[in-house]
Amino acid sequence: MNTSKQIAAGISAELARRGHSKRELADVWGVTQQTVYSKLATGMLTTDEVDKVAQFLSISFVDLVKASLMLADSRMGVAA
After folding, report:
1. Tens of pLDDT along the chain (80 residues)?
2. What is the dihedral of CA 33, 40, 63, 73, to 10 degrees?
3. pTM for the whole thing?
4. Under a CB-based contact definition with an 8 Å cutoff, are residues 51 and 58 in contact?
5. What SUPFAM superfamilies has UniProt attached to this entry (predicted)?
6. Does residue 47 sit within a domain?
7. How many structural domains is the chain composed of?
8. Burial status of residue 13 (CB atoms within 10 A of its CB: 0-12, 13-18, 19 or more)
9. Domain assignment present for 80
């Protein structure tokens, strides 16, 4: 899995963990829910979109990316 897909997967996981929906993310990004699903599936996210997610979740951009990459590593059995 490439880094952008790892970040997208981490965003999905963090949204779910905090009880937020893809619909809410669509509102944050100002796009359709279908666009959210597409962007998260492909990992084609801009830094602005990742930053908006971080702001929405009240965490830093760096912490969101770091958590996403750590989650991906743990799922692949890579030691941190």
Report:
1. 689 999 999 999 999 999 999 999 999 999 999 999 999 999 999 999 999 999 999 999 999 999 988 886 676 665 54
2. 150
3. 0.84
4. no
5. lambda repressor-like DNA-binding domains
6. yes
7. 1
8. middle
9. no
